[in-house]
Amino acid sequence: MDNRRPLKTRSKPWAQSLARFIAALKVQPNQISMAGIGFSVLGSACLVMSGCYQRALLLFFAAVCVQLRLLCNMMDGLVAVEGGLKSNYGDLFNEIPDRIEDTLFLVCAGYAAHFPSLGWGCAVLAVFTAYLRAFGGSLGQTQDFCGPMAKPQRMFFLTLGCVIAALVQVLGRTFPVLEGILWIIAAGACVTAIRRIRHIAQLTLMKP
């Protein structure tokens, strides 16, 4: 059973080449996973400071950190599987950092938007959708990575929100961009949770 998230980017030549380069340096997949947490801490700090100091550069840097986090998430799996460096603790390092990173980014985006409860709500929903995926897997089902607001989509919208919010600041405008993006993430996560629950129920009913 393949429980890896289906990513078209994973098969791209540049991704394969980068994974081989990292593997040749003897960098362990678990170290890459920890680097993802590091980028999340930096990006989240930038989000919080952007809410305090209203600096567009902080939002741009936060957007870059979101994408670097995703790159680490992809590279740890590529190096582990394609590079043959999978460890006994690989599953722990694959799942736990993701939950930490999602929570950091979404909660801090809420503080940046001056709407902390919305950020916390998005974080709870993100963890819940991940729980449903893992729960389906615990029942012997193929893990369900369906959206519309799985991790890649959540991070895409957060990146987009950071970039747009930065541009709005550069133009000297005031518009609650991050708040709007967080509402989109929250609504999409609710739909995602409902879809995953339905899939689990349907597959359970199909069992003899």
Explain what this protein looks like in three dimensions.
This protein has a single domain, classed as Up-down Bundle (Four Helix Bundle (Hemerythrin (Met), subunit A)), CATH 1.20.120. With 208 residues, it is mainly α. It has seven helices and no strands. Helix 5 runs parallel beside helix 7. The longest helix is centred in the last third of the chain and has 29 residues. The two termini are 20 Å apart.
Summarize the topology:
Elements lengths: L12 H12 L4 H25 L2 H26 L8 H23 L3 H23 L12 H20 L6 H29 L3
Helix pairs in contact: 1-3, 2-3, 2-4, 3-4, 3-6, 4-5, 5-7, 6-7
Short characterization:
It is built from seven helices and no strands. 76% of the residues lie in helices and 0% in strands. Helix 2 (29-53) runs parallel beside helix 4.
CATH topology: Four Helix Bundle (Hemerythrin (Met), subunit A)
Mean pLDDT: 91
The description of the largest β-sheet is: none
What is the number of domains?
1
Order of helices and strands: HHHHHHH
The first-level CATH class name: Mainly Alpha
Rg over C-alpha atoms, rounded to the nearest angstrom: 18 Å
* Count of extended strands: 0
**Helicity, in percent?**
over 70%
Strand portion? under 5%
| Low-confidence runs | none
CATH superfamily: CDP-alcohol phosphotransferase transmembrane (TM) domain
Overall body shape: globular
Count the DSSP helices. 7
**Class by SSE composition:** mainly alpha
N/C terminus separation:
20 Å
Known CATH architecture:
Up-down Bundle
